[in-house]
């Protein structure tokens, strides 16, 4: 069967753009053929705090092919932040090369533009900087005295946690640590930017087209109408490409200065310093419970760092407010300024890290209560979001846990920690619950119908992006469903700011928002056809076109959340199960198998959805196994600076991952019943692994990642 | 990258002639280490002389009844050679634990011996590092040194040698054959090939300028029954060792009659555990004796601020490796 001739959503069809990708025909930002193209190379600071006192550009400028060396001395003046500690958003301006100040190690301090990439790269090394260095704040512990409440603060409380803890039979008070991590999509951040006398054009690898255009317009203080951003294919982002970053501004600044299009690619090494990071979080969790497992109190206090000039706060406590029923709850977030680059949203911001803390703590509590961790969670389930009193649009968490337990063989879990072994390996099982907001946002789309050879062909246009998730495919399926034509008669065109506006890819809202936007456009087209056709017996799209005597039709539609949506709390839910084997001596552990049960609305395409969850599980395993960016303690540079030392999992680390979807169509979430998937997959995976390590060894690991060194040291402690 | 000359040598004579003609020349094997370091601006050769295509890419029998491993042969084609697998399974196992299949296909035996430390300060040109820039200081000594040496370091440098292959070669007591630029040949015992940092950490080994490694000589087949290479690392592939142990045993009449034992990731050179080896000779291959040997092996370890864990981990790793080696064919 050729699945691509199928109609509608729900079929596991291959990616419609798959062939283009595997044959190299799909063009990514830096690959467009643009006439007169030149190349730029960013220069990074080699101190973490201080001032540039001198710059010698002579040698660089004298090199063959060099067209410009731009530093704060000759860079054009851009819009400036109007306050210190500017709260970062996806549309923030990105001033760069505006002063002699250095805020962190690796900050851009210059740019070389040359005829070839090699010339630019070589000359960039010849620009000499002299600095007046100051002692940087690079130590998390030492910075604690400077903690402050963020401007966009998200403290929350209900009831009284102290009283709830006093009432409890069993209590817990522990701190969980997640390290600095980096997004590291496969495709490097890149742009080909042309200033064009003010008609700005940017091929840029971005998740959100419209926001990128806003950042460009606001930073250069030009009219957004004159900015065109194109991003037809994006090789992953994980949040790092939500906003246009400084390299986008640098390339356009250079293009304006020399009046030629400029290509700028951020190197893998620079991806550590110039594209944001996930900051280190210390999360203190307190739990109180009655001896029957009923929660009496739950609190979550997060301490994180931000840069010295921008604020970003990861809402780690989000999950603790809403996941379990407890009358007494409080959540706080505090930030400390440090001489490190600004953090920004990374895959499942809040949930990925917050759930490591909460779901580890829940496991610890279950152990203290001598309860099965699944039973403990089910005991404290709630169908109403306790943080705002709204009912959940749907919540099948208990069902996920129960089905998972059955499929995984939870009954074979070693009842006592460190009680089961296979040769030199200690065997453990772990479980965790997952929840992730499933937002749905206002989205517009245009559909163009054409009658050709007695069939209707449709082209869908929207500024949405496909960041490797499968947007092209599910949108073709959606149009096919609503127009009732085969998928192969649908063409999807994305990633161009000339198309109708969408919220872009991020926050797991893409599928729900884009598909409903496409639906709205199709519904509008059918309505227009019916209006034009007048009285007719025609029902199919072809017949309607004929009845209306049209060979083409264009229609635009917009979908947005309704009152029903706003009256509910809308989340996806899931459960993770992991079996690990821990070496009894060396501290090495292996993930033997994983199961993820997800309830995340209608599955538009099982194949792309499966890929989303598996990818999330692998990234979650990365958090658990090895991913971390280490700060050099004296100088403040990152000592993990390539994929040779920033360890993401390899195939051999990942055992079989099974994914089971609970059938669900959440019509409150949106008309099509779709919820987000991408970020649910990563959520609480690390906790299920750490919980399994505890079950295997009796050692509780509260500090990610679980390197052999840390497990070994922990195991020795008792001995 | 800085501009450089590129010469493809077809014969050893061409390579040796080129290295004398060119200023600041370096030999190029598979380039998996050298080219990376050039991109990072750490290595700045003005000429590269490719020696990966020389005809010393063979594996042949040698005069002492062992094998000669050509320096130009790839790590993959060496580790997977049927005679290497049969006669030196310890070497094969160690080599196959390194890097990834892709890198092993490119990497040459000569280059593997000369790969440079993974110390992060060495890689970052803005950091102090005596190995990269003599006299600039050692950033790791009072810095991030969890991955650094516990044996034989000096205040000038606490780096480790990263190779897995070399740990097995140390246990097997190989020798290295080199051609000097004047055309003569010399052999270097493996234990003398790499050096300790002392006051000159910029020198990783005892090669003289311009010398070309042509082969690695292995003694008679060893440890074909009882061998094991244990590599502790953060992920299952594509990661350097936190520490590693190569162990080979010969057991006759219930006692150990021969033993080869070396550690990786603990010193500026592959670290031969001579005291532990001496102890085990004539002893029964029991866990208790292995533990005694391991204690002896780590007795003279000196730790830094962040790497103290390597001592107890090393002891456990040695015991485990010896146990696995012994139980392999027992
Ligand atoms: C990401 C990554 C992970 C890795 N993981 C591991 C690992 O886990 N374990 C491990 O052991 N290794 C690992 N390696 C290192 C790899 O084994 C070495 O890079 C490789 O063996 C070097 O061989 P080459 O032929 O590519 O050397 P090149 O890079 O070509 O050369 C290295 C050095 O040797 C010199 N040289 C080369 N041939 C000769 C010769 N015949 N005579 C004299 N000098 C010569 C060169 O001048 C240069 O100084 C890894 C490498 C990478 C990039
Ligand atoms: S340990 Fe050696 S390689 Fe590392 S910084 Fe010190 S001198 Fe350089």
Automatic annotation (TrEMBL), chain A:
Keyword presence, Transmembrane helix: no
Every Aldehyde oxidase/xanthine dehydrogenase a/b hammerhead domain range: 23-135
Keywords of the record: Molybdenum, Oxidoreductase
Record flagged with keyword rRNA processing: no
SUPFAM superfamilies tied to this protein: CO dehydrogenase molybdoprotein N-domain-like (SSF54665), Molybdenum cofactor-binding domain (SSF56003)
GO molecular function: iron ion binding; oxidoreductase activity
InterPro entries associated with the record: Ald_Oxase/Xan_DH_a/b, Ald_Oxase/Xan_DH_a/b_sf, Ald_Oxase/xanthine_DH-like, AldOxase/xan_DH_MoCoBD1, AldOxase/xan_DH_MoCoBD2, AldOxase/xan_DH_Mopterin-bd_sf
Protein name: Xanthine dehydrogenase YagR molybdenum-binding subunit
From TrEMBL, chain B:
Molecular function as annotated in GO: FAD binding; oxidoreductase activity
Domain of life of the organism encoding this protein: Bacteria
Keyword Flavoprotein: yes
InterPro entries according to UniProt: CO_DH_flav_C, CO_DH_flav_C_dom_sf, Diverse_Substr_Oxidored, FAD-bd_PCMH, FAD-bd_PCMH-like_sf, FAD-bd_PCMH_sub1, FAD-bd_PCMH_sub2, Mopterin_DH_FAD-bd
Keyword Flavoprotein among record annotations: yes
Annotated ranges, domain FAD-binding PCMH-type: 1-223
Protein name stated in the entry: Xanthine dehydrogenase YagS FAD-binding subunit
Species name: Leeuwenhoekiella palythoae
